[in-house]
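Subject: Sanity check before I submit

Could someone independently write out the structure tokens for this chain? I want to compare against mine line by line before I put it in a report. The sequence has 240 residues.
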Amino acid sequence: MAYDRELVADDALPDWLRPVAEVGRRIDSPRFLSPSMPEAPATARPAAVLVLFGEGESGPDLLLTERAHAMRSHAGQIAFPGGATDPEDGGPVATALREAEEEVGLDPDGVDVFASLPRLWLPPSNFAVTPVLGWWRRPSPVGAVDPAEVETVFRSPVDELTDPANRFSVSHPSGWLGPGFAVNGDLILWGFTAGIVSRLFRAAGWERPWDTDRIVPYPGSARDPLVEEIETDAARGRRR
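---
Independent answer below. Compare away.
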């Protein structure tokens, strides 16, 4: 299957999603996530995640995965579908769509890609991750393709993600403090994934005032779930 494709124009998107597309075109530095975010070095290993917006029964939503509960690390944590780039991938768009198909069974033909954000460097693993923004024009059934890696796949309504009752900051033992969201019941979205969601929503004008003094401890693992997901995928790729 061909995963690479041209970016679609704004008029191919629903009106509510166009502010996100405008933000995607405007962002030109990884510092959109954090003012101290460094540029990725040339030696960084490429990876990509799919930031997929859809529209379901509860209105606009975002596709997220919960990592398998039996995994040795990051059990039950939340991330976008994605992973390390394969040599056959033509670029980050191909990586993001291929990984989403492999992880959750997504039909890539139903996705219109409208922007890619600058690469985000994850120094501990030396991955440079490109967030690929997509519109789920023709939704397809999704679920955990490999239950050993993914516990559940769910669509988180934007209205719930922006609800002040579901917003807080997450504190890490290292001293790091970053955005957090309550999703899909009692799960916590944090780390790089939450940072991307928070910054995108704020820049698009979707953020609602919330209690920034509300702080919860990090949910169990000391490592970011996005880092863990990509490293797991890279190890799986070496075994293929």
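---
OP: Matches mine. For the report I'm noting this point. The CA atoms of residues 20 and 204 lie 5 Å apart.
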